[in-house]
Sequence to fold (112 residues):
Amino acid sequence: MRTYVAVLVCVAEAAAPATSGGQAPLYRESFVLLTARTEDEARSKARAHGEGLETSYRNERGELITWTFRQLVDVAELPDERLGDGTELYTRHFRDFAAYTAFEPLLSGEDL
Fold:
């Protein structure tokens, strides 16, 4: 068995009354460790995990919030099976830091 990390994206949307103006969807990116014999098996397990994250509930304002699995972004084998302090799980590369800052609410101090 090998260890893989899967990158999953889910979206939360509120079924708000038409008069409330609604709120923009909230996306969640998750990094999930999986064990599998092959990358194909890891991809299958990752999709199943993402679908298992789907749920609905009412928030404190009574709005129905629905989390939906949106996308399996990537599956990568861990280069080092020894998990511990300093183990790198996943690396992402990008060219536009302003775009990254715009989509990552934690960088702007936004309260989720």
User: Anything to note?
Assistant: The mean pLDDT is 88. The longest helix spans residues 39-52. The CA atoms of residues 8 and 68 lie 11 Å apart.
